[in-house]
Amino acid sequence: MSEPRWLDGQEREAWLSLAALMFVLPAALDSQLQRDEDLSMADYMVLAMLSETGDRQMRMSDLAALASTSQSRLSRIVSRLEQKGFVSRTMAAEDRRAVVAHLTDHGMAKVEQAAPGHVEAVRSMVFDRLTDEQVGQLAEIGRALLTDACTPHRALPADGHPQGTACP
Predict the structure, then answer these.
(1) How far apart are CA 166 and CA 168, in angstroms?
(2) Rounded distance between C-alpha atoms, residue 84 and residue 105, angstroms
(3) What Pfam families does this protein map onto (predicted)?
(4) What's the CA gap between 146 and 90, in Å, rounded?
(5) CB atoms within 10 A of CB 15
(6) Residues in Cβ contact with 91 at an 8 Å cutoff, skipping those fewer than 6 apart
(7) Ramachandran angles phi, psi of 8, nearest 5°
(8) Which of 6, 21, 31, 108 is the 20 to 30 Å CA partner of 12?
(9) Calpha distance 39→159 (Å, rounded)
(10) Cα 130 from Cα 124, distance rounded (Å)
């Protein structure tokens, strides 16, 4: 059995910072959305992804990839959003096996209401603390770490369009 490739001091420091960030930032953003809008971060991401399409609809498989979640988790999220009247689902006209999620007018109003507070939280927790150069580096680092990642979700390519689905 070969010796593990232990982290050096700089790698350990970087890893511990990243690991802490992976727990603290999502929890803080989720807390803001729960407190202010009665939405989870996952709920908001689904609404936001649908709101950014021209016709406010998307195949569930593509939406799962864009929202960085599995199709089974997305189905639970969309069910919750359907109960609130924010989203509806139909069968795709061109492929009866595919399901399409639609953002309702009520859902669009909710995402428009939630967006300013969420963006302010993201800005204050992330971008206000970084230089322009660091923002560019953060984007580059994110792409590098997500490329071919499947732990737990497949990354989107640089053009932002899903290629297949999120990892199970």
Answers:
(1) 6
(2) 12
(3) MarR (PF01047)
(4) 31
(5) 11
(6) 98, 99, 100
(7) -80, 180
(8) 31
(9) 28
(10) 10
